[in-house]
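Mods, move this if it's the wrong board.
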Amino acid sequence: MDAVTIAYGLVCILGAAFVRGYSGFGFSLLAVTALSLRLAPAEIVPSIFMMEIAASVHLLPSIWREVHWRAIGMLLIGYTIAVPLGVWLLASMPQAPMKIALGLAVLVSTLLLMRGFALRRMPRASATLATGGASGLLNGAFGIGGPPVILFFFSSPAGDAIGRASIIAFFLATDAIGLVFLAREGLVTQESLVRALVFLPALIAGIWLGAHSFKHSDQASFRKWVLRLLALLALLTFAQGVAGLL
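Not the wrong board. Structure tokens:
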């Protein structure tokens, strides 16, 4: 990486890490979208996975007691079962129209949450497994497995703090699984590790600033901010699908 790319990358990682520290999600899509303007996806994704794991481990001690571990276990079972099907879809189906459909579905769901839609109780085991399956399917096909789980927790009565903590724990597990698959394909290299280490100071600073801001925010403003971020990510996914068609 040249000096301009490093400087640009540090700014991108700092911003994406702030979002991650505050909301518990959004780092991967924001960082990959921004860095892909300067680097190839194959160079970015392994480093992003490493940084995602570092970000989650960094936050885990402070949110351990708030994680809804029973739901996380069921979600991961569904996720693991469905990932191979998502990979098959990646290999056999056109991605652009599916990304457009995904972006629209997430956007509609987010608008419903903005208008006050909420579940009265935590979903049953079958619904939790199905949500994990949807996440695995989308992650295998597009590398975007977050929206079903984010919508799952922020429409449930668990509370915003529990939802944020559980999302962080879920992403830690799925990123570790993803990194294993990338390593098996030979995509985790010394260069990707060096790239992650170069961006590590910006990651730590952004995570700290975001987590500090979360501690001083009220629940209502946090929820509005998260839903706006989710809508932005849905629009980015939709835009990627349209660009693919064009």
